[in-house]
Structures are given as structure tokens and as C-alpha cells.
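It is worth pausing here to work through a concrete case rather than discussing structure prediction in the abstract. The textbook approach is simple: state the sequence, then state the predicted structure, then interpret. We follow exactly that order.
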Amino acid sequence: MKKLTDKELAIMEALWDYGEQSIRDIISHLPDPTVHFNTVATYVRRLEMHGMICHKELSAKFYLYDAAVTREQYIDSIHKENVRKFFGGSYMGFISKLVKEHDVSVDELKELIRLVEEK
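Step two, the predicted structure:
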């Protein structure tokens, strides 16, 4: 799955949060609502080419766009790619790094162990 740029992610966030929308609706939900219509349309077309967005044609010049992948699918894909790229596919290496460099509490570690045991 394609790793999204910040602008692409903002568009996907608008679709994930508000469902299917026109380009104008998407623009109204972006952090910078002054972005030009054609710029957003170009990003939407690119996202559609990569299978991230799909559209429904309501008339010759009016489309509604929606996310073709869920937020969870995207997050899972990015996590897997990062673990593969930076930790040689080792989730142990990834989790060890988090524990060593961040304030992970004993309770959080116990919860993590519980989740692993349930799986």
C-alpha cells in the first residue's frame, strides 16, 4: 500500500471521518481550506490510481469520492512496512525500542503480554 504524503493523508482523514464527499466537501474538511480545487482534484486522482479512493459518478461533472481502504488497513500496512524496513521484520526489535526509549509502564507491559497470550 502506498505511503501517504501529509496532503494525501489529510484527504484520506476527511474521507475516513466524514464518509463519501465531493471535492468541495473534502476541501471544507482540510486543515487549510484555501487550497485550490484543482490541486485537491489532482491528489484525489492520484489516490484513486493507487487504489486508496474510489468514486461514484452522479452526473457528467459531479463525483462523490470515498475511501477504498479503512484507516485501520492503512495503519496496519504502515506498521508492517516500518517493522520490515527498520527492524528486519522483528516485532521484538520494534517493541524493545519502544520500551527502551519511551516511558512504558509495567501495567502497559502486562497488558501487552495479556494481548499476546490471547492471540
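Step three, interpretation. The first strand starts at residue 53 and ends at 59. The beta strands are 53-59, 62-67.
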